[in-house]
Amino acid sequence: MSQTLRGLYAITDNALLSGERLLPWVDAALAGGARLLQYRDKTRDSVRRLDEASRLRTLCDYYGAQLIINDDLALAAELDVGLHLGRDDGSLREARQHLGPDAIIGATCHASQAFAEEAAAAGASYLAFGRFFQSVTKPGAPAATPVLLEEVRRRFALPLVAIGGVTLHNAPQLIGAGADMIAVVNSLFSAGSPAEVERRARGFTELFPPL
């Protein structure tokens, strides 16, 4: 599992990828090496969300990447893809039972080893910690530190995701502290063109040396 869940983890954002930007910007991120893609859309337009997620799954299949749905077990089950759950977004244990043993299910742990312990016991595939730096997407999230990342690296065998204000400049510090994946939103998708998204994605991808 840890060999698969490694590298750039791209997360979509409604504001950055509105209208016709979603597919070409995501295509560029995947072309640049993103290994996981999280579809994060908190709107109630279920028809549009199903259509967009279906298209993203096709893109992920083409690039050999994994699609993860944010906080929507029903949609993840319908598309037979992965799921990411926040602290207040449903039972990870129930999601594991519903999606099966092979599904990728991630858990938000903020800066809490206790949350991580609960998620690991419930069957999480990876543990996400953050924010580590000032974050445009989640400015109020509890702050985590590289020291925490080092501690959870020693404690848990599961892959670790670092999220929150991650840039090309500060990502190496998190990787050095034990992050298997770096989750990026604004530093990737705020680019003005697909070509720039791909350039940024390649930059993040190159931070992970070949195994």
Characterization of this structure:
- The protein has 211 residues and is α/β, with parallel strands linked by helices.
- The chain is 41% helix and 17% strand.
- The protein is built from 9 helices and 8 strands.
- It has helices at residues 22-31, 46-63, 73-79, 92-99, 113-122, 146-155, 171-177, 186-189, 194-205, and strands at 7-11, 36-39, 66-70, 82-85, 105-110, 126-129, 160-163, 181-184.
- It has an 8-stranded parallel barrel, surrounded by 8 helices.
- Strand 3, helix 3 (73-79) and strand 4 (82-85) form a beta-alpha-beta unit.
- Helix 1 runs parallel beside helix 2 (46-63) and helix 1 runs parallel beside helix 9 (194-205).
- It is globular, with a radius of gyration of 16 Å.
- The model has no long low-confidence stretch (mean pLDDT 94).
Key terms:
211 residues, 8 strands, alpha/beta, eight-stranded parallel barrel, 41% helix
Walk me through the topology.
Layout: E1 7-11, H1 22-31, E2 36-39, H2 46-63, E3 66-70, H3 73-79, E4 82-85, H4 92-99, E5 105-110, H5 113-122, E6 126-129, H6 146-155, E7 160-163, H7 171-177, E8 181-184, H8 186-189, H9 194-205
